[in-house]
Amino acid sequence: MAKKAKRLTPILPRGFVDRDPDEIIAVDAMIHRIKAVYERYGFDPLETPLFEYTESLGKFLPDTDRPNAGVFSLQDDDEQWMSLRYDLTAPLARYFAQNFETLPKPFRSYRQGYVFRNEKPGPGRFRQFMQFDADSVGAPDPAADAEMCMMMADVMDELGLSGKFVVRVNNRKVLDGVLAAAGLADDTNTSLIVLRAIDKMDRLGIDGVKLLLGEGREDDSGDFTKGAGLNEEQINRILAYVTADADDANLFDVLAEQVGDNEQGQQGVAELKEMQALFDAAGYSRDKVKIDPSVVRGLEYYTGPVFEAELTFPVTNEKGQTVIFGSVGGGGRYDGLVSRFRAEAVPATGFSIGVSRLAHALQLVGELGNKERFGPVVVLIMDKDQIANYQKMVAELRAAGVRAELYLGQSKNMGKQMKYADRRNAPAVVIEGSEERDAGEVQVKDLVAGKIASKDITDNAEWRAARPAQVSVKRENLVEHLKSLIEQNETQSN
């Protein structure tokens, strides 16, 4: 007796997801609108490969025989390690350094694509996800950072999120200056604890951050998080900095006071002041783009201004709690990245959008995927010997810009073909049997009209009596009729 073949279980690896047509089309439409803003600002597209040599990814190269901590890696046939890109910025730095002599400076580009993280997946945390970045490499002045912030505000407006977002801006130099003034310049470990505490301001509030700056904080579950152990004077200095009001006319005086005589900190305050002047001059109000000292982003990476786009409308999280939606993208100045490849310093600033997260936000506010999307018109096969004739109809419809397909399934049963068309969300089907052919006509069944009519039907007898609109159309008028029908149904359905 032959051994029965073992069948595989169809299952995705953890941390990866499939995307269906509706999601792909909706996200593509969103990306098209973002591109329009980026290009309006003079940025051009760039595409880099999914793989880079692992050493090009820098800090993600671990101290092991197989470099796979944080990245997915494999060894080439020349025994060099390659990794799937972790973000879109490290490949940009490599590209810029490799083409340094021929590229304009600043080099303004945008890039879209998947990135990969070899990390433990969880709710909303994936191993593959899409980012959409814009960067200006070779631009040293705060004006380039201000432009990034204004461009992100324009993107949010373009996507229908006006009044529902704020671009928050801070500066790494100011943060370092405050830490130095608090006596923490040489205490890296404590400084990191302080920064993590500041980063929790929007979630824990001032009282929670104060506890984390001191001895620590116990949460509602009883878990205790050890604090930074600062004294009262240090805590007060940091809290005065974090709570500085962006709308206060004396904001920059407050920041300057908190960094003391630290030269780097004072330079950061001056940069923020220059950026604010640019925002004001360009008409970006402080409810759209604002200085916010509580912004903390990957501070081992950024070297100057940092910024993030935060959506400000409330949503319900997985625990049933009402929370602010939060960040959908961020970035900042990273003047040290390209210098890994070249001797001279190369200034750079950029912004990265989390595509899936932004798409989810747009769905929540009805700005993405809220229009019904119809499938193709389906031409049914009534007579097997007439396939060439049916295919001609399909070709005519496609040539006229109408989505259309010939039914190519296994069953030639009309009922099953109609069921297929329904699953495809076809706006209409075309039927031509021998009688129609002899009369020079086709039958067009309007499937959308039937669905609209069924919404008002509450009685089974009424349902059985109701029929989707079906009309006879002269064969030579088929294309014109279907174009008109589709336009009408799209108007009625949305």
UniProtKB/TrEMBL annotation:
What GO cellular component term, any one, is given? cytoplasm
Any Pfam family: HGTP_anticodon
Binding of L-histidine occurs at 87-89, 117, 131, 135, 297, 301-302
Catalytic activity, as annotated? tRNA(His) + L-histidine + ATP = L-histidyl-tRNA(His) + AMP + diphosphate + H(+)
Q: Which GO terms describe its molecular function?
A: ATP binding; histidine-tRNA ligase activity
Aminoacyl-transfer RNA synthetases class-II family profile domain location? 39-376
Q: What superkingdom does the record give? A: Bacteria
Q: Which UniProt keywords apply?
A: Aminoacyl-tRNA synthetase, ATP-binding, Cytoplasm, Ligase, Nucleotide-binding, Protein biosynthesis
- Where is it localised? Cytoplasm
Subunit structure and binding partners: Homodimer.
The UniProt similarity line reads: Belongs to the class-II aminoacyl-tRNA synthetase family.
- Provide the protein name: Histidine--tRNA ligase
Natural source organism: Maritalea myrionectae
Q: Which gene encodes it?
A: hisS
